[in-house]
Design a protein that fits this description.
The chain has helices at about 5-25, 35-50, 55-65, 70-80, 85-105, 110-125, 130-140, 150-160. The chain has about 160 residues and is mainly alpha-helical. The chain folds into two domains: about 1-65, no CATH class; about 90-163, no CATH class. Helix 3 (about 55-65) packs antiparallel against helix 4 and helix 7 (about 130-140) packs antiparallel against helix 8 (about 150-160). The longest helix is centred in the N-terminal third of the chain and has 17 residues, at about 5-25. About 30% of the residues are buried.
Length: about 160
């Protein structure tokens, strides 16, 4: 529901999530490790949804370090970094998306998302040739490019990179 809502509704929903999560704060030490991970991840996502990006980044940094093999956390961290606009943030995002790509099962949805974001970040960083090279190689090995919607995104990015 939150993903399809207007931005102001998403922020309101995220703030409601944060209020609910914070009510559980006092019992956090009683959680099992799996429940603690779920709690911390939900909190980080709610912070991001509420526009508290710096706090969300800190929470996801901690989670990414605590759960280096958790693809969901690593991808959420990479996605948050993707919102950066300065070169350092984009380079950090690129490094994180490369990690997501390396750890994802080849040709999985996560792997294609990571490939797309790696190519997109190369483009945003001014390395158009590398972005185009990544997509062209991917077209040879996986001509479907992860499905119709992802293929459309890849081809649009390729067109931009080769202008």
């Amino acid at each position: 529901m939150a993903a399809t809502a207007r931005p102001e509704i998403r922020a309101d929903l995220a703030n409601l999530q944060l209020a609910a999560i914070e009510r559980l704060e006092g019992r956090r030490e009683q959680f099992s490790p799996a429940d603690r991970r779920t709690y911390e991840f939900a909190r980080a996502q709610a912070l991001a949804g509420a526009g508290r990006v710096e706090e969300a980044g800190q929470a996801l940094d901690s989670l990414a370090q605590a759960y280096p093999r958790d693809g969901e956390i690593q991808e959420a961290h990479a996605a948050l970094l993707l919102a950066g606009t300065d070169r350092a943030s984009l380079e950090r995002s690129l490094a994180k998306w490369r990690q997501v790509e390396e750890k994802a099962a080849p040709a999985s949805e996560r792997w294609f998302r990571a490939k797309y974001n790696v190519a997109s970040l190369h483009y945003r960083l001014g390395n158009r040739e590398q972005a185009a090279r990544i997509i062209r190689l991917l077209q040879i090995v996986h001509p479907e490019l992860g499905g119709p919607e992802r293929k459309r995104q890849f081809l649009e990015l390729l067109a931009q990179a080769t202008r």
